[in-house]
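REVIEWER CHECKLIST
Item 1: Sequence provided? yes
Item 2: Single chain? yes
Item 3: Sequence as submitted:
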Amino acid sequence: MKTRQLLVASMALVALTLSACSGNSKNTASAENTEVQTAAVMSVDDLLARADSLVGQQVNFQGVCTHTCKHGATKMFMMGSDDTKTIRVEAGKLGAFDTKCINSMVEVTGTLVEQRIDEAYLQNWEAQLKAQTAKTHGDGEAGCDSEKKARGETGNTPEERIADFREKIAKRKADSGKDYLSFYYVEAQSYAIK
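Item 4: Structure as written out by the authors:
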């Protein structure tokens, strides 16, 4: 009888130990899931929605590459859920992007940068146009269509683009008191075609 009581007590002790261990493993799994979620790859949509709070930070995101620049593929444009959600990615130290990225899902790790367009920026652009020293990007004076789409531009000439920016700055100042536009891009540290 004593042996039986000892056996039952031992089994109860083992059961308690196992349940305590399984409780700990659940906590560990929860912690691991949280870490995985934290390190999860963002979508382009999520990145753009949180951009103002992520400036200067390393980000990891993915989207469909819709375009690489024809002049050396030093820039690529990645689309989110639709073509109104686009972000520019600069190759920087990587040199250039593989043109196989186009129409592929691409994962990028890099630093998010904010570019501000304000009146001083626009006046400098106008001065460069007048002196004919303005850098051109894309085909013709209208600029790169992918860049314009990413920034929501509607103008077809530099002068129309500048006027468009001034109009948007005035609207933003009236709405939020900010006298500049924010555009975001990523300086890539690495990328992979998925």
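Item 5: Key structural point noted by reviewer: The two ends are 66 Å apart (CA to CA).
Item 6: Recommendation: ____
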